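call fold(seq) -> tokens
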Amino acid sequence: MKTIKVLGSGCANCKTTAKIIEEVAAEKGVAVKVEKVEDIAAIMGYGVMSTPGVVIDEKVVHAGGVPDRKAVEGWLSA
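ret:
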């Protein structure tokens, strides 16, 4: 199971990002645990300056803006 963290303040883009990740994971049959991280200090700890950010297995894979489905598919297949 992949642990995926969506970093952000809980804004609409952060919620959309989490939803896209969950949808793509379900379509691909990949087990994921999506966590929302809203603590600013924790977000800064990953070096993410623009949200939403996405962290997979403690590695930052995206920051700033909603990722497209193709990008998410790539992360989940890696």
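Residues 2-77 form a domain with the Glutaredoxin fold (CATH 3.40.30.10).
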